[in-house]
């Protein structure tokens, strides 16, 4: 296999939740590999990812919307196709986390997390998958799961439930679409130094406990996800279907 298998020249991608953090790193990595990349976030103004995509000579756009609103999913796919002419790669990265004891977990937060972290992932995949099936040229769908797709976590019952669902949805969609040339896979990040984990990193005892368990002895960074994303969005992974790839510094092997 040549390095060309990891190139994305001529491909059109959408990365949700790419205003900052993991999504921004993935969007920029895909652009550097050759793809046009549409960016999305809840913030009304674009983040730095769009500028970085343009800087490497690729097309981009920014779409603001809360994926808890069901209509945003269809608008995002429509916008991508309108801007680029097609969608070849979908990265479902957008997600939220709310920490509460299970006995006190607010219903509105449960509903929000399931809507954004799971229902929107299905709806976006369904719409992008429908487009890919109609074109008949295949495509790549990459979901961002979590190590909590495998573990229960603490104070994160809704998040763990939603990310467990993402892992199973990845496998279910792969079973239906693999024979059609559509690869559906997921990355399960470990403990990453992003805004979502700011509370954990600021809790000295909990942060110490986490670091003591990670064989790599450090929190992950958004850039640690980039290589795995390029692999799973490129032709290098054409025979990889329904896989959940842990990028966790060895956390799950402990």
Topology of this structure?
Elements: E1 12-15, H1 21-32, E2 36-41, H2 48-55, E3 60-64, H3 70-84, E4 89-92, H4 107-135, E5 139-144, H5 157-177, E6 182-189, H6 198-202, H7 204-213, H8 223-233, E7 244-247
Parallel strand pairs: 1-2, 1-4, 2-3, 4-5, 5-6, 6-7
Helix pairs in contact: 1-2, 1-8, 3-4, 4-5
Kindly summarize this structure in a few lines:
With about 250 residues, the chain is an alpha/beta fold.
**In the CATH hierarchy, what is the superfamily?**
NAD(P)-binding Rossmann-like Domain
Query: What spatial form do the alpha-carbon principal axes imply?
Result: globular
Q: In sequence order, what are the helices and strands, one letter per element? A: EHEHEHEHEHEHHHE
Unreliable spans: none
Strand order of the largest sheet: 3-2-1-4-5-6-7
User: How many strand elements?
Assistant: 7
The residue fraction in helices comes out at 40-55%
End-to-end distance: 33 Å
List keywords for this structure.
8 helices; Rossmann fold; about 250 residues; alpha/beta
Outline the structure in words.
- The protein is built from 8 helices and 7 strands.
- It has helices spanning 21-32, 48-55, 70-84, 107-135, 157-177, 198-202, 204-213, 223-233; strands spanning 12-15, 36-41, 60-64, 89-92, 139-144, 182-189, 244-247.
- It has one domain (9-247): Rossmann fold (3-Layer(aba) Sandwich).
- A 7-stranded parallel β-sheet has the order 3-2-1-4-5-6-7, sandwiched between helices.
- With 254 residues, it is an alpha/beta fold.
- Helices cover 44% and strands 15% of the residues.
- The chain starts with 11 loop residues before the first strand and ends in a 7-residue tail after the last strand.
């Amino acid at each position: 296999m040549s390095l060309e298998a990891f190139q994305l020249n001529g491909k059109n991608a959408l990365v949700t939740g790419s205003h900052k953090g993991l999504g921004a790193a993935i969007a920029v990595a895909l652009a550097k590999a050759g793809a046009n990349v549409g960016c999305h976030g809840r913030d009304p103004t674009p983040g730095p990812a769009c500028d970085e995509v343009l800087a490497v000579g690729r097309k981009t756009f920014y779409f603001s919307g809360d994926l808890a609103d069901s209509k945003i999913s269809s608008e995002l796919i429509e916008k991508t196709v309108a801007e680029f002419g097609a969608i070849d790669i979908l990265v479902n990265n957008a997600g939220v986390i709310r920490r509460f004891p299970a006995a006190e977990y607010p219903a509105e937060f449960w509903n929000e997390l399931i809507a954004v972290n799971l229902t929107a992932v299905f709806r976006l995949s369904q719409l992008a998958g429908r487009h890919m099936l109609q074109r008949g040229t295949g495509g790549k769908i990459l979901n961002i799961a979590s190590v909590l797709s495998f573990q229960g976590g603490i104070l994160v019952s809704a998040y763990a439930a939603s990310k467990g669902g993402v892992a199973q949805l990845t496998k279910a969609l792969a079973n239906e679409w693999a024979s059609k040339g559509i690869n559906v896979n997921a990355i399960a990040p470990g403990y990453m130094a992003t805004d979502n984990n700011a509370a954990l990193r600021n809790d000295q005892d909990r942060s110490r406990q986490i670091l003591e368990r990670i064989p790599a002895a450090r929190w992950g960074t958004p850039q640690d996800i980039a290589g795995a994303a390029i692999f799973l969005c490129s032709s290098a992974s054409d025979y990889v279907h329904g896989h959940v790839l842990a990028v966790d510094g060895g956390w799950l092997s402990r």
